[in-house]
Amino acid sequence: MSEAERMHLFRRNRNAFRRHQPKVWKALELIEKTVSTLVIEDDVVVNIDLGEVRLYPEPAPAWAEHQLADYFKNPDRLGFENPCHCNLSPVSLGVLRHIGLYMADHRKVRSVPLPVVDVGFAFIFGVGLGLHVAELVRRNVARTLALIEPVPEFLLHSMQTVDWSRIFASARRKGMAIEFLIDADPTLIVGRLETMIYRCATFLDGSYAYPHYYSWALREARSLLNEKVKLYYISPGYFEDEILMMRNTYGNLRERSFHVVDRRPRIGRKMPAFIIGSGSSLDRDLPTIKKWRDRVIICSCGTSLGILLKNGIRPDLHVENENTAPLVKNLRAFRETYGLEGIRLVATTTVRPEASELFDRRWFYYRRPLSSSKILSGGTEPLPFADPLVANAGSAALAYLGFSDIYFFGVDCGRHFEGEHHSQDAVYYQDGYDINPNNRPDAGFERVVPGNFGGKVVTTWSLDLSRRTYTSLLRTRDVTITNCSDGARIEGALPKVAAALEFTNPPNQQQAVLDDIEKTLPCFEPGQLLEKIDLNAHFEACDVFETAFNELVDQALIEDKGFWDFERRIDRFWRGDWSEHKGVLTIMSGSYASMVRLGAFAGTRITSPNARKAFFRFFLERYRESCLWMAAETRILLREMSEGRAEISDVGKMPVPA
Q1: So what's the pLDDT on residue 441?
Q2: How far, in Å, CA of 143 to CA of 600, rounded?
Q3: Cα–Cα distance between 377 and 292 in angstroms, integer?
Q4: Contact 121, 149 (CB under 8 A)
Q5: Domain boundaries of the chain, sorted by first residue
Q6: Residues 222, 326: contact at Cβ < 8 Å?
Q7: Which residues sit opposite 482 in a β-bridge?
Q8: Beta partners for residue 345, in sequence order
């Protein structure tokens, strides 16, 4: 290809980028001069000269050809061995049992370990000269081709090498989206990938990872993506849990007087505030907490309440984010042993009413994206960054209440390799404590992350998500977090050993500060907030939903070719004008989505197109049955709430399928 032909190709590609990738081209236009240069031999682009080295170890056309051939002999793919990632709950377990019975009755239907259709993503780590991209499009490897390139000028070089206009046209014909991620920061790369994946998490299963060339940024991005894969399957909730949280919120609003903590701006508070978690490093710092007790607001989080009370430290605020029965048992024991007088409860509205009644003063907050926060909030804005763990809720509450100087103790977000997972006085070590075998506090420490005071520690997916949520809070609120915990490093927080702390503010001002804050919080008497909510409209909308949903499935049976089409359909239904049946669909939303993921897990692995279609039609009917059952149970719940009943029926118990 002569220089004139390369310039002609460049101009055609420039026009193609302007039309199909305008944001990418806008970034490329800012490059005035490239540091690297094209290597051309016999009018063929063969490499990129980086100065002392070249990008490819051999001529690029041969490199790309050999790499593609070798890769597809044993492609690197994300695959799940079983459907446990599908947020299984009783209602979806019923569908899973039907799927198992179907497969037992159709033993000739062949399935393979990885999806053969509807693969969501191909993550291409490196574009370089782009000689591999056309073949990936031709093979139709995934619904979305994510082209990750940390060096923008390489794309300019590729525009003299490959015909992007043809690549874009070919992808469009196949229904394949092409997304460019141009950044040298691995964290930002993965952040953009997360946003992309969340839009289509159902089809992450089976996705490809294709490394094109080596660079530190690409290696780190891929490593970080591998660590975070499990997070993409976190559901906003499943049906049975949403029913429980609706019942608890209704009970708290109906039976309790309370104040509300929301996201509205408030006067800044200069008094230091301690967030106390239950990490093992808390044991070392208890003397420091005692030393400064009279000069700071102390906020216990979850199980740290018992640790503090046992060690003679009485918190000002206590935060709860859970709705479990052991929580009620623990709080009752603490009240009997130590008393809870003078401690304000700061809790999610979904905490059990039996727990909230144990405190004299209650500050409730709503959590997104729970159905109770959308249906029973009366217009109150949910508290941001209040998940996934209780210390996140405590930090978010303090930040939005105006505290700008926050200190962490026992917020370890991990543990040392040979260390304990919690403080020695945590309830988990007590004889007879009922530990959920599916949520053991000592399980899941598989991720290695930087330590707060150097070195490395191990953490779990939930603790890792927790520490990243603190960073998001720091980026959003004008707040300083000093981390005295000897655990995982929290980006944006200042590491500091507890012994180095020094405070000079006046002592014994805590109750006056909290009383002043309480005056600014909206206050409700029992049942008062419920009067603002038209629960009857939500109840009546259940019939509207049933009709609309039946029509949706009927159309899918006629028009949809498989799970990809069907998820697009239910997504349009979710995002459409569904205000009439907002209540029922919100309560169902977690299982509504995860059951499709369950069906896709089985259906996309069936090799025969005809057998795949037959299974898809079978699944749609089981899905219809389960969703209509959920709607009927929700109708009972909303009807009884609209009638103002003191006792709500125990709905949401899925019968075992025959």
Answers
A1: 62
A2: 14
A3: 37
A4: no
A5: 3-89+122-233, 258-430+442-524
A6: no
A7: 407, 494
A8: 318, 362
SS (H, E, C) 183-207: CCCHHHHHHHHHHHHHCCHHHCCCC
Strand ranges in 308-376 using DSSP code E only, listed in sequence order: 317-320, 344-348, 362-365
Task: Give yes or no for a contact between 446 and 227, defined as CB atoms under 8 angstroms apart.
Answer: no
Tens of pLDDT, residues 325-339: 888 999 999 999 999
How far apart CA 305 and CA 316 sit, in angstroms, is 10
Q: Which residue has the tokens 């989206």?
A: 177
* Helical axes 609-642 vs 582-603, angle rounded to 10°: 160
Cβ distance 410 to 276 under 8 Å? yes
- Per DSSP, the three-state class of 323 is coil
Cis ω before 657 (30° cut-off from 0) = no
Tokens of 300: 């216990």
Q: Is the dihedral of CA 638, 643, 645, 649 positive or negative?
A: negative
The residues, any chain, with a CB within 8 Å of residue 339's CB and separated by 6 or more, are none
Mean pLDDT of 493-521: 96
- Residue 548 φ then ψ, to 5°: -65, -40
Q: What is the pLDDT of residues 116-155, one digit of tens each?
A: 999 999 999 999 999 999 999 999 999 999 999 999 999 9
- The region, left, alpha or beta by phi > 0 then psi within -120 to 50, assigned to residue 128 is left
Give me the pLDDT at residue 494, please. Answer: 97
Q: What is the CATH number of domain 258-430+442-524?
A: 3.90.1480
On average, the pLDDT of the chain sits at 91
Q: Which of 1-5, 84-88, 180-184, 272-276 has the highest mean pLDDT?
A: 272-276
Amino acid of residue 346: V
